[in-house]
Amino acid sequence: MSTTTELSYDISDRSNLHPQEPINLQVVGQAVSASQTTEAKSTKVQGVDENNGPFAEVITAQQAWKDPQINIWRVSAAFLGFLVQGANDACFGPLIPSLESYFKLSYTVVSLVFLSPFIGYVLAAFLSDRIHMLFGQRGVALIGPGCRLLSYVVLSVHPPYPVVLVFLIGAGFGNGLLDAAWNAFVGDLKNANQLLGIIHGFYGLGASLSPIIATTMVTKYGLQWYTFFFVMVGVALLDLALSTLAFWDATGSEFRNYSANSNAAGGRMRAVFKNKVTWLCSLFLLSYVGSEVSIGGWLVVFMLRVRDAAPFASGMTVTGFWLGITVGRVVLGFVTARFGERRSVSAYLLLAMGLELVFWLVPQFYVSAVAVGLLGFFLGPLFPAVVVAATKILPKRMHVGSIGFSTAVGGSGAAVIPFAVGAIAQAKGVQVLQPIILALLAVQFGLWLLLPKIPKSHAE
Asked: What residue ranges are annotated as transmembrane (predicted)?
């Protein structure tokens, strides 16, 4: 049984309010909502949104990663989910030469393994909020890992190439759905910068391990590309089990109870799409994820054919890049929390552009290997920092919709941009990777400068 103190306010006239300034409410009494899994103080605030009419928002005390206790398991499930996603995104780089020879494909056609998940990401971008409203995080925990597991099972039996592409759409949908949901979930917890740094560090860990495993299986033991997906089936099964158990009580009704404007999801999503922060974050993450996965996806081919490296050494260079991302996300997450997202991200991008120039212009294998590892280190914290900035700028009622849409669109960059690199490389050679990456980093820097300032109430 729970009691809720409900206060109504008419805030349709905002002429005397700063657009980013929070409204101070004096609440008489204490509102406590308790369930089997959560205990949080809450206040339900009603008002009028100038774009979308009346809204009702339940403001809950911010949870921590270990309070309530169920969050320990939920955060752990999110960590594992990101590890699987990182392994998924990074595995195709070292597998491209094997795919080329097995199916006798050109650069452009083999690049479709990057493009086909795009359809799944787009579907996830538009369906994430609806799935949350209907089924809650329980639905996400079942659907997302389930789609990935089914895709890996099919790939492990080495079907014809068109079938591979079709089932990669399912993997893309699962990745996009989980990417959106777990970023929004962790981004709303206390110490979000550090936690997002760790969760994205698990993405980097998965992305570091999968090239090692795939490269070793293919180059050292002479196994075919599809044997790697037996490994993915195993971790995807574990992901499905842990996510389902951790989020089983997070139902659609629970989500609706604590979601603003829950009876008007369409109105909330209209507000999300009207907000420029949503689109700036979406474009930033599209460019960022695209550059990250393009480097990881085409680095082996670049090192083999431009730097004349051995196959195993080329595969290890990719591992160095993803290890750099992993360490950067964990270590620089604390730096970002100390100095603030605005200054930190600007500095990281400038350093990344400098390292990309070194990688491009110094034609030595070892210099390239070191430069790309350091490049990964400074790219690492960008994704979590953007998510944290969005949670600070946007009202809470837009978090799931806006961050979910932005991260899903960003995830589609892992499909579109590596495919574009492959198509251009088919005509101009794989050396086009470097100027494309430098241009993408410059775009990210420009988009970051356009993002509104973080309100003082949330400043570091």
From this structure: 105-127, 163-186, 198-219, 225-248, 277-300, 312-335, 347-366, 372-391, 403-426, 432-451
Q: At what angle do helices 117-156 and 265-274 cross, to 10 degrees?
A: 110
CB of 43 closer than 8 Å to CB of 58: yes
Model-level pTM? 0.73
User: Which among 281, 261, 289 is positioned nearest to 176, based on CA atoms?
Assistant: 289
- E strand or H helix at 47, and its extent? strand 39-49
Cis amide bond preceding 68, omega within 30: yes
User: What mean pLDDT is predicted for residues 54-83?
Assistant: 81
Is residue 410 very low, low, confident or very high in pLDDT (cuts 50, 70, 90)? confident
What would the mean pLDDT of 332-342 be, rounded to a whole number? 88
Angle, helix 276-305 to helix 433-450, in steps of 10 degrees: 160
> Predicted confidence band at 153 (pLDDT cuts at 50, 70, 90)?
very high
Q: What is the mean pLDDT of residues 78-90?
A: 93
SS3 content of the chain, % helix, strand, coil (to 5): 75, 5, 20
Q: What is the pLDDT of residues 18-27, one digit of tens each?
A: 444 444 444 3
- Determine the residue type at 362: V
Distance between CA 453 and CA 60 in Å, rounded? 24
Nearest to 278 by CA among 134, 394, 363: 394
Q: Which residues of 164-174 are buried (b: 16+ CB within 10 A; e: fewer)?
A: bbebbbbbbbb
pLDDT-derived band at 64, boundaries 50, 70, 90:
confident
| Cα–Cα dist 188/305, whole Å | 45
Question: In this structure, are residues 183 and 411 in contact, taking their beta carbons and an 8 Å threshold?
Answer: no
Q: Which of 364, 377, 357 is nearest to 292 (CA)?
A: 377
Q: Going from the N-terminus, what domains does the chain have, and what CATH number goes with each? A: 6-60 (no CATH), 70-458 (1.20.1250.20)
Distances (CA, A) of 284 to 26, 85, 218, 227, 354: 38, 20, 35, 35, 19
pLDDT value, residue 34: 37
Q: Which residues touch 3 (CB under 8 Å, ≥6 apart)? A: 31, 32
- Cβ atoms of 62 and 392 closer than 8 Å: no
pLDDT at 458: 53
How far apart are the C-alpha atoms of 373 and 405, rounded to whole Å?
30
Radius of gyration of the chain (CA): 22
412 or 50, higher pLDDT: 412
| Token pair for 360 | 């491009």
Q: How far is CA 228 from the centre of its chain?
A: 23
Measured CA distances, 321 to 47, 191, 362 (Å): 49, 27, 17
